[in-house]
């Protein structure tokens, strides 16, 4: 298993609905380490860069409008195989298709309000972490439970 970092954004709907603690708690309980976290109001420039691969698609404009509408929580999470692990905890993009027990499956109803974003691969994770965080905002530290999380 390889130690990785991934980028997660708790979207405006989840912040407005008071789901921040619940969502972060799921990652903490899984043993995933938070190495960076901040609340910010996303501007159009950041939103367009974040969703650059979707430019031109019909949902691009509504999605940019959605994530710039109200503050978000941005995080960098670290752990073994964390990119895939977080994606499976988040569930399918469309909350209608996301399994119960996943964050989108449990808290979302509509693809246009899908609660959370998580990087979908290694390259994306690197791009998104560098886009959202400065190197000095990411904390390198050991959690006391780390020895109990892997064999
Ligand atoms: P996210 O995982 O952040 O990546 C792209 C986002 O675009 C997605 O979650 C949704 O918030 C939004 N979106 C809206 N409609 C669609 C769609 N039809 N397909 C994919 N993403 C969509």
Spell the H/E element sequence.
EHHEHHEHHEH
Mean pLDDT: 97
The largest sheet has its strands arranged as 2-3-1-4
| Structural class category | alpha+beta
The CATH architecture category equals 2-Layer Sandwich
Q: Strand content of the residues, in percent? A: 15-25%
Low-pLDDT sequence parts:
none
Number of helices: 7
CATH topology type: Alpha-Beta Plaits
Characterization of the model:
Helix content is 37%, strand content 19%. By secondary structure, it is α+β, with helices and mostly antiparallel strands. It is built from seven helices and four strands, in the order βααβααβααβα. The longest helix is centred in the first third of the chain and has 11 residues, at 20-30. Adenosine-3',5'-cyclic-monophosphate is lined by residues 54, 59, 63, 93, 111-112, 114, 117.
């Amino acid at each position: 298993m390889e130690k990785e970092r991934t980028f997660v954004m708790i979207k405006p709907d989840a912040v407005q609905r008071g789901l921040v603690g619940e969502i972060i708690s799921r990652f903490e309980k899984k043993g995933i380490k938070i190495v960076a976290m901040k609340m910010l109001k996303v501007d159009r420039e950041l939103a367009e860069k974040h969703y650059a691969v979707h430019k031109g698609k019909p949902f691009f404009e509504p999605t940019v409008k959605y994530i710039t509408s109200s503050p978000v929580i941005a995080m960098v999470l670290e752990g073994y195989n964390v990119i895939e692990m977080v994606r499976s905890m988040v569930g399918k993009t469309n909350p209608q298709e996301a399994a119960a027990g996943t964050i989108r499956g449990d808290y979302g109803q509509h693809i246009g309000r899908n609660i959370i974003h998580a990087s979908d691969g290694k390259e994306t994770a690197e791009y998104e972490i560098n886009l959202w965080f400065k190197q000095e905002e990411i904390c390198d530290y050991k959690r006391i439970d780390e020895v109990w999380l892997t064999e």
